[in-house]
Amino acid sequence: MAAKNLQVLLANRPTGWVKESDFRIVETDVPVPGEGQVLVKNLYLSLDPYMRGRMNDQRSYAAKVEIGQVMTGETVGEVVESRNAKFHKGDAVAARTGWQRYALSDGNDLRKLDATQVPISAYLGVVGMPGVTAWIGLNDIGQPKPGETVVVSAASGAVGSVVGQLAKAKDCRVVGIAGGAE
């Protein structure tokens, strides 16, 4: 039996908490790459807070997901077939291919990953957008000195948890706020 592509589609605009019924899981044929295209098998998906806003039907800094579209999300995966000279079978890549097992790309939205230094899943965290955001925010903007206090307002989040660790590594006192009285 041939492999199938599982996709999670936005089925409804959630009101309040997101529910299972706001999504629809479909099984489709695995797409076949055309000239210049790459077929990626997604191995990891980052689930991030911004996704909730993308489910709404209102103006935002990022485009909404339309009803019936694959839910958006950043992924890392492996090239399983390539008809694009820039990518080869087995390349590890990062992309925004969403909540699906397989995705086609023309290669313009793919970024090759170095899988020899860190696990590719780290490109969705500490060496990906959250880690880069934390590094720039702390070091380029905040510029704390050893012994100073760094307060992290969202210390339990992807960016905040990295900021706290980076600040500790700089010998700063870190105060993390994570949402409760404690």
Structural topology:
Elements: E1 4-10, E2 23-29, E3 38-45, H1 50-54, E4 75-82, E5 92-95, E6 102-105, E7 111-112, H2 129-142, E8 149-152, H3 158-169, E9 173-176
Parallel strand pairs: 8-9
Antiparallel strand pairs: 1-2, 3-4, 3-6, 4-5, 5-7
Structure summary:
The chain is an alpha+beta fold and 182 residues long.
What is Rg?
Answer: 19 Å
The name CATH uses for the topology of the largest domain is Quinone Oxidoreductase, Chain A, domain 1
> What overall geometry do the principal axes of the alpha carbons give?
globular
How many runs of DSSP E, i.e. beta strands? 9
**Helix count, DSSP H or I runs of 4 or more residues:** 3
How many separate domains?
2
End-to-end distance: 54 Å
What strand line-up does the widest sheet have? 6-3-4-5-7
In percent, how helical is the residue content? Answer: 10-25%
CATH class of the largest domain: Alpha Beta
Per CATH, the superfamily of the largest domain is: Medium-chain alcohol dehydrogenases, catalytic domain
Largest sheet: 5 strands, antiparallel
Mean pLDDT: 94
Structural class of the secondary elements? alpha+beta
Order of helices and strands: EEEHEEEEHEHE
Strand content: 25-35%
Low-confidence region ranges: none
The appropriate CATH architecture of the largest domain is Alpha-Beta Complex
